[in-house]
Each structure stands twice: as structure tokens, then as C-alpha cells.
Amino acid sequence: MVIIKTEQEIEMMKRAGELLATVHKEIAKIIKPGISTYEIDQFVEEYLKERGANPEQKGYHGYPYATCASINDEICHGFPRKAPLEDGDIVTIDMVVNLDGWLADSAWSYPVGNVSDEARKLLDITKKALYLGIEKAVVGNRIGDISYAIQSYVESEGFSVVRDFVGHGIGRSMHEDPQVPHFGTPGRGLRLMEGMVITIEPMINIGKYACTIDDNQWTARTIDGKLSAQYEHTIAITKEGPLILTDQE
Ligand code: MF3
Ligand code: CO
């Protein structure tokens, strides 16, 4: 069941989203070779708590950390770790902020130091794919229009779209209906209505889209060991068009 949000509720989610966006901007400043994702995770948890917010992921189905930190061939749900990041890594930091009971969800991929041209291209295309999807998040369109915009662009660039993880509705809980796949057919799926709030969060691989899950039962990584990236925003569908609640601009 899709839970439609009022303007006031979207305003509450926007406050959570603005806080989340400031966290990403802080991470962008401190991320470099030598820092660990464990340190970043602790920074995020403290930053949120000092501002009266909570990291919703911690304890969610037993997930042990405030953030997911997925390095190189890790697709998502990477565990923060004490090993320092190395020059040339790419790392996706994903988090859900709970502020006064309303949630926002945003993941961002970061280059660490100097990355290869191929990694840079993966980051650029993945980010562009997110924004192409967001453009389609308008009243009257269907979920498949978002899915298709992302898939057709990414595949035209020779990269692949992960199938096993999708975007989702969000509100007072992290995962609500509908599901938002990043692959699919235009004109298909649920019709978008004013007051829906969804995430769009394409995970894009250089090689095959298939993944395996680590022994920790959480971390997904590419089956061929090639790089994966992800950018995610929380989006409200409004009469005026898509409103990016986690915008960093
Ligand atoms: N932020 C993720 C999403 O987009 C959720 C991570 S799973 C968790 O759905 F358990 F770590 F929270
Ligand atoms: Co999400």
C-alpha cells in the first residue's frame, strides 16, 4: 500500500533530507586516503545525535552500523571497517536519517584520492543516471518511465544495472511501497501521484550486473570483481515536479 504524504509531512521529510545532505557534504570534505570507513561511520553517528537525529539503519533488521560503506566491487550494504581507504578506491556511503520520526535516505559514491579514468566514468554515468530517473518522477508518469530512463542510458554507455536492489517508498518507515526498479519498460507499473515519496538509487556496475552476498549475510559485491557505484536521493512527487529532499546544492 502506497502511503501518500501531506505537504506538512513532506516538509518534515525535507528537514531530515537537508540534515542528511549536510552529512554528505561533510564527508566529501574529510574523505581521503588514510581515513577509514569506521571513522566516517562514527563521525556520522555523532553528527546526527548532536543534532537530535538518529541513524535509522543501525539496528534495522540487525544491521550493526549507522552507515553502509561499500568499497570498489562492493555494491551495497558494505560494513564500515578500520582498514584505511586507499588512493584510487571508490566508496559509496549510504545512510537513512530519522529526524522527529520522519526519514530521508541518500547514498553517494566518493572517489578516494586519484581514481582511474574508468572509475571516474562509472561515477559520472551513475550520477547522471540518477538525475535522468528523477526527471521522470512527475505526476502522471509511471514507475517504468523512471526505470527505463536509467537502464537505457546506462546500457548505452556499456555498463549494467543491478537487479537485486531497488528504490522504494519512504516515510515514517525506511521501506514502503512502491518498489522502484532501475530497469524496466516505459509506460508500465504504478502511476505516480502527488504526495508519493520514493527513493531512486541506481547501483551501476562496470561488468556484469550479478552479485554475490558475503558471509556477513549483508554485503553484496559484483560477481566478477569489477567496480560498482551508487547515487541515491529521496524524491517527493509534487504538482511542481520532482522535489529532491536530500539535495546537496
Ligand atoms: N539505505 C538503504 C536503502 O536504500 C538501506 C540499507 S539496509 C540497512 O534501502 F539495513 F542497512 F539499513
Ligand atoms: Co534507499
From TrEMBL:
- Classification via PROSITE patterns: MAP_1
Determine if Metal-binding is one of this entry's keywords.
Answer: yes
Kindly indicate whether the keyword Metal-binding belongs to this entry.
yes
Q: Which keywords fit this entry according to its UniProt record?
A: Aminopeptidase, Hydrolase, Metal-binding, Protease
Cofactor binding note of this UniProt entry? Binds 2 divalent metal cations per subunit. Has a high-affinity and a low affinity metal-binding site. The true nature of the physiological cofactor is under debate. The enzyme is active with cobalt, zinc, manganese or divalent iron ions. Most likely, methionine aminopeptidases function as mononuclear Fe(2+)-metalloproteases under physiological conditions, and the catalytically relevant metal-binding site has been assigned to the histidine-containing high-affinity site.
Q: Which GO terms describe its biological process?
A: proteolysis
The record's section on InterPro entries has: Creatinase/aminopeptidase-like (IPR036005), Pept_M24 (IPR000994), Pept_M24_MAP (IPR001714), Pept_M24A_MAP1 (IPR002467)
Mind telling me which SUPFAM superfamilies this protein's record contains?
Answer: Creatinase/aminopeptidase
UniProt EC number: 3.4.11.18
Q: What class of enzyme is it?
A: hydrolase
Lineage: superkingdom: Bacteria
Ligand binding (a divalent metal cation 1): D94, D105, E232
State its cofactor.
Co(2+); Zn(2+); Mn(2+); Fe(2+)
Q: Name one GO cellular component term.
A: cytosol
Any idea which GO molecular function terms this record carries? initiator methionyl aminopeptidase activity; metal ion binding; metalloaminopeptidase activity
Query: Which residues participate in a divalent metal cation 2 binding?
Result: D105, H168, E201, E232
Described purpose of this protein according to its UniProt entry: Removes the N-terminal methionine from nascent proteins. The N-terminal methionine is often cleaved when the second residue in the primary sequence is small and uncharged (Met-Ala-, Cys, Gly, Pro, Ser, Thr, or Val). Requires deformylation of the N(alpha)-formylated initiator methionine before it can be hydrolyzed.
Similarity annotation: Belongs to the peptidase M24A family. Methionine aminopeptidase type 1 subfamily.
The UniProt entry, under HAMAP family, shows: MetAP_1
Query: Mind telling me what this protein is named?
Result: Methionine aminopeptidase
Q: Which organism is it from?
A: [Clostridium] ultunense Esp
